[in-house]
Amino acid sequence: MYNYPVKLTHDAETNSWIASCRDLPLMNSVGDSIEEALLESVYGLVTAVAIEIEERRPVPQGSAPQAGEYIVSLPVLAAMKAALHNAMIETGTRKADLARKLGKTGTQIDRLLDVEHSSKVETVELALHQLNRSIAVSVTAS
């Protein structure tokens, strides 16, 4: 769901790998090797998703990879927060509405939507449940 195709381009001048994502154009990262660039891409994706949420734009789903692209997944908690943000947009739920439903303050809801804040998974799951969304987790071999 929040698995994104990432393109790596080698920069001969700096001998580094530059990562970009067509689904999240604001995502940029770099690494000295392919492995490092892909690892750094996770942080780049989190930052790009944070910007989308801050700008109150829907967080796009990852598209199918094209030839030569790598799939990089958003961390589980960040994906849950992106899903919560998208559900709020889809249902027309304002932060104040969600705060009332959960018995929380506006500041607590802001943190719940902050992909860089370490919220409790259970709290995000409860918020999603309040918006008639459920969570399914799958683990696959890489």
Q: Quick recap of the structure?
A:
This is HicB-like antitoxin of toxin-antitoxin system domain-containing protein. With 142 residues, the chain is an alpha+beta fold.
Q: How is this fold's topology laid out?
A:
Blueprint: E1 3-11, E2 16-20, E3 28-31, H1 34-54, E4 70-73, H2 76-91, H3 95-102, H4 106-112, H5 121-130
Antiparallel strand pairs: 1-2, 1-4, 2-3
Pfam family, one: HicB-like_2
Domain HicB-like antitoxin of toxin-antitoxin system: 4-82
InterPro entries: HicB-like, TTHA1013/TTHA0281-like
Q: What pattern of helices and strands is seen along the backbone?
A: EEEHEHHHH
Q: Supply the CATH class of the largest domain.
A: Alpha Beta
Number of strands: 4
In terms of DSSP E residues, the strand content is 15-25%
Give the mean pLDDT.
Answer: 95
Describe this structure in words.
Helices cover 44% and strands 15% of the residues. With 142 residues, the chain is an alpha+beta fold. The chain has 2 domains: 3-73, Double Stranded RNA Binding Domain (2-Layer Sandwich), CATH 3.30.160; 76-130. The chain has a 4-stranded antiparallel sheet, with helices on one face. Helix 2 runs parallel beside helix 5 and helix 3 (95-102) packs across helix 4. The chain is elongated. The mean pLDDT is 95.
